[in-house]
Amino acid sequence: MAGRREYYVEGLSVSRAVEKLAGLGVPVLSARRDGKKGLYLQVDAKHHKKAFAILRGSCYNVKRTDRRGLSRFAVFLKKQAGLIAGALLFFAAAAFLQSRVLAVRVTGSGAYLGAQVEEILARGGVKRFSAPPAEYAPLRAAVLALPRVSFCSFRKEGGVLTVDVEVSEEPVPLKKELLVPATGTVEELTVIRGTPLVSVGEEVRKGETAVAGYLLIGGERREAVVIAQIKVKYPFSAEYAGDEGAALAQAALDFGEIDGVQTTKTESGYLVAGTAHAAAAVNLG
Question: What is the pTM (predicted TM-score) of this model?
Answer without folding.
Answer: 0.42
